[in-house]
Fold each of these.
Amino acid sequence: MSIQRLHRLDLKEIAPLAQESRDEGFRHITRMTDEYESGTNRFDQPGEALFAARDRERIIGICGLNQDPYSMTAGVGRVRRLYVSKSYRRHGVARSLMEQVILEANRHYSVLVLKTDHPIADRFYDSLGFISIGDDDNVSHMLRLDGRSGSRF
């Protein structure tokens, strides 16, 4: 398995992962491909990135980093669209993707946020050092990044 930064998302290549996520009842990978195709989010703004996990040539996981569109404060990044193929879960793929996202975020942001309502994802993000936030409609978890200062949002 390898982690690769994508500078262009091949919609045909990501289609099997998007289909698998839909079959599981998740819509976020389909939203990602729709937004990418329409140009509304291509992970190409300053401080943004998209990472893929591969097993040989096959994409088995994906995770993005955006400027947080909900924050009124500069220096806030947002984890977007983390998904790992079901057969590759519990093998460190999500952790490896998140390590790359956090490394990249650390170069641009003082805070990294995300939104999830899935209990397994909640525990996963807690294990990475994120703090659960209970009073925000747009954020469920927050991580202050090393070497940076800044207040919450």
Amino acid sequence: MRRIARRTARRTTGRAARLLTGTALAVLAAAGFAAPAHGAGTRAAGLEVFPATAVPGGRVSVSTTACGNGGAATGDAGAVGAGRFPLAPGAYGGEAAGRFRVPPSAQPGTYEIVAECAAGGRRVTGDLVVVLASDRQPVAPRGSVKTGVGGALGPDPVQTAAGVAALAVAAAGGTWLLHRRARGDGI
């Protein structure tokens, strides 16, 4: 009877594990098709801008497959003040790619980046968001860590001395009580 119960438990556990795994994979797949997160690349009308959010002075890459295999293009980031830049054919499935630097004087806002294919004159656009501070840049910590313990002398040496004195009195009292108990005087 126990063997049957164990087999049934194993089957149930296996089914539950497969069900949970399948559900988790479905959620991950759905998340992959959701809108890109803030700062990820965006594809708008055939032009991918990465990162989609940049700081003044930062580098931005753009790419498109709109120009076909081996197609080159000319990019224009004049809206943000960066001017024109080339998009050269790449090794990734006919994708033309290029880079430009956001000018240090760029103001926060959303700017349209344009690429025009050399053959055929097809125009594709994408958006670039300029912000003053990046979420990805680390911020140096300032001050001390507020753990509640304090330093060796703490913020107030008088309080530290009072605490040490209280601990010494407690240790002496505990020792005296243990000594009385060992002698048999009672507590």
Amino acid sequence: MATRADDTAVLTEVLDQWKAAVDAHRPERVAALFAEDAIFQGLHPYSVGRQSVADYYEAQPLGMKAEYRILESRRPADDLVLGYLAVEFTFTDQPPRDVKLSVLVSRTGGGWSLTHYQVSSLD
């Protein structure tokens, strides 16, 4: 049976790659971390699929960086990990933006992929 530490390790593996791609402004690398049919909601209306993820991150300002902290994790099934995070996005020309992020990460034949991503701004 998987432990909370195992769940955190899975989330960290995926989210460290997400952070690196976001920080480098590499929208295609960000999108590659998502399942083909992933449900994605940034701070705009939701979309489905990798292309919509790439389009969203392409539109983000150059110099945007992400710092995340895992607040909670659960494993509702062997091949599924739920994460709830605090994320601070920083920018070169505007104040930081603090959000909450919920993700579902699913294990497939090729490893772990983001299948659901939803940002909440509590402003």
